[in-house]
Amino acid sequence: MLQLTNDQIGYIIKDLHYRGLVLESLQEEMIDHVCSAVEKRLAKGARFIDAYQEVLRSFGNTAGLRETQHQTLLLENQKPKNMFRNYLTIALRTLSKQRFYTFINIAGLATGIAACMVIVLFVLNELSYDKHHANAERIYRVNGEIKFGGNHYQLAVAPAPLAEALLQDYPEIESAVRFRNRGSYLVKKSETADNIKENNVIWADSTFFKIFTVPVLEGNPNSALKDPNTIAISKKIALKFFPQGSALGQTLIMDNSLAMKVTAVYQDMPGTGHFVFDILISLSGLDEAKSTNFLSNNFNTYLLLREGADARALESKLPAFVAKYMGPQAAQVLGGEFSIEKFKASGNKLDYTLMQLKDIHLHSDLTAEFRANGDVTYVYLFAAIALFILAIACINFMNLSTARSSNRAKEVGVRKVMGSLRSHLIRQFLTESLLLSLFSFLLSIGIAYLFIPVFNDLSQKTLSLPLTEPNFYLMILLATLVVGVLAGLYPSFFLSAFKPVNVLKGQVSLGMKSGLIRSSLVIFQFVISIFLVVATITVYRQLNYIQHKKIGFEKDQVIIIQDAYALRDNMQAFKNEIVKNSFIRSGTITGFLPVDSWRSDNTHWPEGSQPTQENMVGLQTWQVDHDYVKTLGMKIKTGRFFSPEFPSDSSAVVLNESAIKNFGFIENPLGRKISTFTGNNPDGSPDVNSIRSYTVVGVVEDFHFESLKRNITPLGLYLQRSDGNVAFRFEAKNTKNVIQSIEKTWKAMAPGQPFQYSFLDEDFSRMYANEQRLGKTFGVFAALAIIIACLGLFALTAFTAEQRTKEIGIRKVLGASVSSIVLLLSKEFGKLIVIAFLLASPLAWFAVNWWLKNYTFKVEIGIQVYVLAGGFAFLIAWITMGYQSIKAATSNPVQSLRSE
Amino acid sequence: MHSPELLKGTLQTIVLKVLKDNGKMYGYEITQLVKELSVGRILVTEGALYPTLHRLEAEGVLKTEVVSIGKRVRKYYSLTTNGKALAKERVNEFVDFIKTMSVVLQVKMAQ
Questions:
Q1: Structural domains of chain B ordered from first start
Q2: I need a surface site. Which of A191, A512, A532, A540 has the fewest CB within 10 A?
Q3: What is the pLDDT of residue A508?
Q4: A67 interfacial to chain B (CB closer than 8 Å)
Q5: Residues A576 and A539 in one domain
């Protein structure tokens, strides 16, 4: 066979290339084909050039060649892998070409997603409370509501005999457990060991392990806690007191007097429960638990309903239950004419309701909860904030992509002319946004990882990224897709809709001028930002207000020594010893403090009248000593406080102004007398025959002893022994000395007992820990939202400045000053922020009023807060834009105008 | 010459069968062989052949091998294992089709 010469082959290659055969994968093959065909004709004796022409004709000349190439190309491009690789390459190229915008996009989105991730973890954690109990669906707590004698209680506790009576009367209840909270205990292993203070101690019925899912590691859950003086302890406590060997069967001594045998060791209760107990004490050893008094509420009572039982139906039977059991006892106390109907008719309440276990953490904030519960409002609030931040970040993305459209309009035009379909372009742009989204998510995992400790600190939780869970990565991947598609959808449709003719002729109005949607998105971002700023300022101001409000006592420079009962008989001596120090002004022994502390109340009535529903006043009865008012800094309005000079003070009372009002003693309160029951019948109900009266010797100005969310209720101070704490007022500047010398005395007088102290002002702020957390968290997320929004604004301004380089150049050549150009560039966004402010203000106003409604005593949020928030947003935005504007305005016009 | 309309659906079958019988072949060789086998009555055009070859390659039915001959390069096609099965299937299918057609058109096929 005749071979073609290299020259001839070279000619063919060149000619084919010239005719438009450029597809790499096809080129070589076609050359070989043509060569072979030519060779065959040459072999028949044709001239090279004739042979070549003939072959070409058989191909259909140039058009046929190109058609073959086109067909092959089409088929090849339908291979999804190739297409994807192509999209990916182009996307990566575009992204790396536009480093600045890519950085802003990824940084903003990653921060937003990280914030979102942390909040989602928080929300999931809040929602998971108490779900670990196998019977969670069937467990209900009995809540009480009592409104009587000027008091209104909403209780998480019920009377001691209630559980037993319910079990008897209603077969749909399978089992019940009661808890009695008696505060913290001092615990030691033996007589000689040092005491350790344990806070999470509770008295409980032996049915506890049957109702709640708490795995018992040692001991028999069925028999544990059955006998008096037995306890069950958590693994943690077992390891603490009995590091070697088994704790089962050992003895712990509680509060220096009660020897308790360990009958079970259970797995530590998870933090995601509305209670975490370290020591359970058997209720069978507590006399109070055997009481038949239906009128005193002290026991947290939980019911386990049978499968299929209807809790609402059971609840509807409870009013009859109240009439049956509580009615007679109340009648006995209040006189013969009492009936539940009359009682309720006069606006009073005595109701019991059921609350499902899993609702407790988020929906319950009653008196006598085991621990501070969460609040579903905050869960919603945080979820909303997370969505807002994500929205802001996505909006940045959309805005930047569409704003950059002018740069890419020509690209779109050329692609379309070359035969790209709209779907191709959409896919191209979606690939870009998915890629950005993927990078952002990867980055956000890192950011969240760093940020979670900070958030844990804020929220008092122990959240962590579930890095070992495959589901986590699945979720991340899914979220990447969703965010990528959401953020990329609008830009890709927007960009791919360009008409090539207009774009290539330069007729599409682009960039900032076409930005109605973009403007509204910017407005939306700043509405959210301003709203969050107002919310943050409000929370902070309310907190500030609470902390500096005149609360009726002086909370600074008071140290409280806790668990003073450990001093036993040395109590008075201890106080006297400490007060001798020159830096101590005075000291008082009492269990009752105007912060979260012991409370006890009792009904009283003016002496000389029969106790009836109308004249009874529920009175906080606080037992204090002579120095109480002096040490805590309350003010006596009229009369006097207790004094050693008046031995008769043991039957005297000092009332607060609310009590005076409630008793109707407004004129001339001094010398009046009030009476109360002092003894109980054997069944626990008050003994109507043992009545004691107290003479009013003074009136103390109202002071806040509960959170400012509540009103000040009637209160009486009695001169009686109460040994919960010793409080001292000390001179400023000497805090360290004070603690050291008090501790020294304590060690001498109460050897082996833990020395625990706190400061009254700190205890006071602790009552508002929730609010403080809310304030801080809001602050952090508001800052994040603003930063992300500004990041977007920064890039948008940079873009506008770039777009208008020529315009600015010409303006400068014609004599515009730098300041006028800066103004020109800022004006556009300035307008948007003003509009955002106008929209955000009413929204914020509603939200602020809604939140402050919770507080009886609240700060005025004046117009200045809104102006401040608006001004702040404007300032931040302006600083952001200012940099770009000034950069554009000061650039030399020669640079921008020379190329045209 | 058969009309291109008739040939349209049969090109893949032809290519597969030819490659099955002859092992590895290059594009021009295929066109020539088909021409020879059909006594010049079937002309496989380059415009139809190459897209088909590329497509079959992308589908994993064909594999290729590039040999350099002098200044030019020659690309040989052969069947993969999948391709061999497919070739058989296609041929059977086509025989079936012819039978059906003969019944439909009421003509007797030369055995």
A1: 4-105 (1.10.10.10)
A2: A191
A3: 57
A4: yes
A5: no
**Domain span including residue A62:** 6-78
Distance CA(A572)–CA(A566), nearest Å, equals: 12
Chain B CB contacts of A36 under 8 Å are 26, 28-29
The count of structural domains within chain A is 5
Could you tell me how many residues make up chain B? 111
Shared domain check, A595 and A702? yes
The 3-class SS string of A373-397 reads CCCHHHHHHHHHHHHHHHHHHHHHH
Contact A76 B58 (CB under 8 A): yes
Last residue of a domain, one of A738, A766, A794: A766
A305 and A231 share a domain? yes
Q: What ipTM was reported for this prediction? A: 0.85
Q: Do the Cβ atoms of A32 and B47 come within 8 Å? A: no
Interface membership of B40 toward A (CB under 8 Å): no
Closest CA to A599 of A739, A753, A710: A710
A15 touches chain B (CB under 8 A): no
Q: Which of B71, B73, B74, B75 to mutate to test the interface with A (most CBs of A within 10 A)?
A: B71
- pLDDT tens profile A677-693: 877 666 556 677 778 88
> Are A79 and B26 in contact (CB < 8 Å)?
no
Count of CA atoms in the C-beta half-sphere (13 A) of A533: 27
Task: Please indicate, yes or no, whether residues A287 and A174 belong to a single structural domain of this protein.
Answer: yes
Q: Is A369 within a domain?
A: no
User: Chain A: residue nearest B52 by CA?
Assistant: A72
Q: Is the pTM for the entire model greater than 0.90?
A: no
Asked, for residue A416, whether it belongs to a domain, the answer is: yes
A393 shares a domain with A497: yes
Q: How far is A67 from chain B (nearest CA, A)?
A: 7
Q: Which of A700, A655, A703 is nearest to A550 (CA)?
A: A703
Which residues, given as ranges, of chain A have pLDDT below 50?
Answer: 511-513
Is pLDDT of B111 > 70? no
Do A577 and A438 fall within a single domain? no
Last residue of a domain, one of A739, A766, A793: A766
* Residues in A touching B33 (Cβ below 8 Å): none
pLDDT for the residue A571: 86
CB contact under 8 A, B47 and A67: yes
Q: Where are the beta strands (DSSP E) in A617-733?
A: 617-624, 636-639, 652-656, 673-677, 691-700, 715-719, 725-730
Are A589 and A608 in a shared domain? yes
Residue of A nearest to B72 (CA): A32
For residue B3, give every residue at least 6 positions away whose Cβ sits within 8 Å of its Cβ, in sequence order, or none.
none
A651 neighbors A695 (Cβ within 8 angstroms): yes
CA–CA distance, A759 with A738 (Å, rounded to integer): 12
Q: What's the confidence (pLDDT) of residue A511?
A: 47
Cβ distance B29 to A32 less than 8 Å, yes or no, reads no
Facing residue for A35 by CB, picked from B54, B66, B72 = B72
Cα–Cα distance, A296 to B86 (Å, whole number): 88
Q: Among A323, A271, A321, A310, which Cα is nearest to A459's?
A: A271
User: How far apart are the CA of B28 and the nearest CA of chain A, in angstroms?
Assistant: 5
Residue numbers in B near A76 (CB within 8 A): 54, 58
B71 contacts chain A (CB < 8 A): yes
Search chain B and give the residue with CA nearest A67.
B47
Amino acid at the residue A865: V
Question: Strand A691-700 and strand A652-656: pairing?
Answer: parallel
Helix axes A24-43, B46-58, angle to 10 degrees: 140
* Predicted pLDDT of residue A512: 43
- Is residue A153 domain-shared with residue A264, that is, in the same domain? yes
